[in-house]
Each structure stands twice: as C-alpha cells, then as structure tokens.
Amino acid sequence: MGLEWIVISLAVGALLGGTALAGLSQKAKATTWQDEIEARWREAAERLGGRLDVAASGALAPRRLHLVATLEDVEVSARATVPATAPGPGLGSYTEARARYLLGAGPTFEAHPRGRHPHEDGEQSLPERPAHLESVDPDALGVALSPQARALLDGMPHGVDLEGDGARVRLRWDGTERRVDVLERAMRLVATLARHGADHLRDLARLDGARWEPRDARGPRVRVRRGQAEVSLRVRRVDGAAATFAIVETRHEVPRFQVEIAADGTLDGELPEGVLDPSFAHHLGRVGPAVLRGEGDAVALGWRAPPTELQAEAAVTLLAPISKGSGAQGAFR
Fold first, then answer.
1. Radius of gyration in angstroms for the set of CA atoms belonging to the chain, rounded to a whole number
2. Partners of residue 213 on adjacent β-strands
3. 325 three-class SS
4. Which helix (H) or strand (E) holds 147?
5. Burial class (CB in 10 A: 0-12, 13-18, 19+), 274
6. At residue 204, what are phi and psi to the nearest 5 degrees?
7. Could you tell me how far CA 219 lies from the centroid of its own chain?
8. Which one has a higher pLDDT value, 33 or 221?
C-alpha cells in the first residue's frame, strides 16, 4: 500500500503540475494578445490626441477598450472588447466608433456591407459609393457623405455598418481592430460625418456683427449683434431632420403661431398683429421659402434647407428690431 500511495501521489502531482503549467501558459498567451491590442489602441490615442480607458475583470477575462478623442470640435469614442485569445473569424467580436452630431441634429441614413442584410423592396447599391456597401436609401447617404467623408470611407479595408439616426453617427465593423491606421481613419470618418452642416453654419459668421461660437451651452451657434439687438443662428432637429433657425428673444411674451413664408414673401397662415414692424415686411421676400414661428419668449425663422448668406442676412434684419435688447419699437412694443 505504501508503494501504491507513492505512485498515486506522484501521478497526481504530475497532473496538477501540468495543469498549473498549462494555466500559466494560457494566461501568458492571453496577456500577450491583449497587451498587443491595447498597445496599438494606445498608439492610436496618442496620434489622435485622445485617451484610452481599459477595463478588465480578471487575467483570463475579456479586456474592454474605450478610446475618446476630440477631432474638429467633435468628441468621438471607439470601443472594442479584446477576448482572452485571438478569436477566429465570425466569432462575434466587433469594433464601434460613434459621435453625436456637432450641431445637435443631422441626417438620418443607413448602409451595410453588401450581402449581409436581406434585400428589401427598393434596396439598391450606392451609386459612386464603396462597392462593399448597400442601402435602402442611397440619396439619404449621399446627403451625409461629404467628399472628405467619401474618401475616408473608401479607404476602409473592410465592410462597415454605417448609421445616422438624426442625433448621432455610428460606425461598426466585425473584429477587434488591430491596425492603428484603420482605427484612426474610422474615428476621423465619424468626426467628419458628425460635423455635417457645421462648416456651412460657421460660414454665416461672415455676416456683419456675427461671431462663431462652437461651444455655446445650447450647442454651436452664430451670434449676430446689431447694436443692442442679438440674433442667434443655430440648427435644431425638427420632425427627425436638421433645420437651421434664426432666433431672437423678445421683450414681451409672444403668442404661439406658425406661418409659412413662400419664396416671393407671401404668407400662408395668420401672423399675429404686432409681431413684425410693417416697415421691415419687405424683407420677407428675401428669406423664403421659410417658416416663421412664435415660441412664447422668442420668434424663430427657420429653413428646411441650409440658408444662403442673403437669406440669413434678411432674417437678421427682420428679427433684430424685436430683440429684447434692441430698444426699437418693433413687435409687441
């Protein structure tokens, strides 16, 4: 019995030792793999001037990466989960980058890698888009894609899911991204998409007395001062779409109303008496097509399409006299 116990003890010891060595080897492989991916994400963070946050619950647990960078005033984040060992193809890992629209609202669109999603009625490939994408509404995606965004998207080495929901942009693709250049390109693409309309709004700061304020508490705006009067040009989300508004806070309470302004300045709807000074009414023919709304403490003039400088100038001229700080004898004096 003594000899048998010795043999059994040796066998058990060898088994336990082998298991321990195997566990150490597996842990080392996991750490090496995860460290390699983390190092590449850190390099991307440095190149983008951002930061990388890392979370892990154990030595053999997945490692979660969260990269955040501000690119052209847009805060972009990228996320991925690094499994303990390198995953095989099609095992469910993915990388995602997203950002909110800088102006608070933007286009709604959706596109996916060709062949991944079943075709629906009317679904078609994107004209002059990367060959690996398809969408049910190519025109909507065409609105969102600036030439710069197209170039960045064309340079992605694999298919991506691309989506804008009116409030934010999301880019997602299969696998835990290992290439620094691809991660950087993806984040710049999202930032470019999220800046939709920002350059046009900023260009309106060329108006006399105007100033671009990208970090106003209620979102980026162009603030236009005419004497003591102040008019804000900013983007709002209306019925799921982005619209540009010229807004003036009034000295007195304004009844709620909405009238359509045609291109020739004619009104469709009833404009409450005293809202606009009659001597400025001729400017209505320079702002349309647009909508004029009373909002209680403000009057807003909005465009469904981005306004020209001439339209914006006419709107400021029309609204400035009713500013609460204008001192003019405008609306509801």
1. 29
2. 221
3. coil
4. helix 147-154
5. middle
6. -70, -10
7. 13
8. 221
Amino acid at 141: L
Position 120 scores a pLDDT of 45
157-173 average pLDDT score = 91
Note the pLDDT tens digit of each residue in 222-234. Answer: 999 998 889 999 9
DSSP 158-208: S--EEEEESSEEEEEEES----HHHHHHHHHHHHHHHTTTHHHHHHGGGST
Please state, as a whole number, how many other Cβ atoms lie within 10 Å of the Cβ of residue 191.
24
307, 288 in Cβ contact below 8 A? Answer: no
Element (H, E) at 236: strand 229-238
Across 102-118, b (16+ Cβ under 10 Å) vs e yields bbbbbbbbbbbbeeeee
Which residues on adjacent β-strands are paired with residue 317?
Answer: none
Q: Is the pTM of this model over 0.70?
A: yes
Spatial separation of the C-alpha atoms in residues 267 and 276, rounded to whole Å: 13
